[in-house]
Amino acid sequence: xxxxxKSWEIIEDEDTMRDLYLCFSLENRxxxxxxxxxxxxxxxxxxxxxxxxxxxxxGVINIRGKIIPVMDVRLRFDMEFQPYHERTCVLLVELxxxxxxxxxxxxxxxxxxxxxxxxxxxxxxxSKSSRFIYGTGRVGESVKILINLQRLLTQEESYMIQDIPxx
Length: 167
Prior knowledge:
- It is built from 2 helices and 11 strands, in the order βββββαββββββα.
- By secondary structure, it is mainly beta.
- The chain has a single domain, classed as CATH 2.40.50.180.
- Strands 8-1-2-11-10-9 form a 6-stranded mixed β-sheet, with no helix packed on it. Strands 3-6-7-5-4 form a 5-stranded mixed β-sheet.
């Protein structure tokens, strides 16, 4: 009997999501966040608007009977609104146990960015959108802007979307 480990055996302690980032783009800028927050990527579904919410909160979507709030990331980052197109999609993420849909221009790929290739973002000004950025990730010759999904919503905004019926 051979006791050597086979390469295809699952190593229980191994975190297969470690250092993996989903890359997406807004205009010609490339952003990324940790894959562990992602639950699904989907084509842009019909959105039901909710009056009185922040402009970047586009409304809610019904996914398999669950009502999920959606945010236009472009508007959250204080970029100009662009009409949605065939590559526009929704990234379903889970933040603190609550689902949220993120509307992005397009998904690019999933890349591995080891910690030694991550640089903390320099504090440049006090723009609102700079609070979402925690660093940059070097991938070959390109640079991805790394965003902290936990900071996309203020505590007040987070409470507001949790109060949406069905959420």
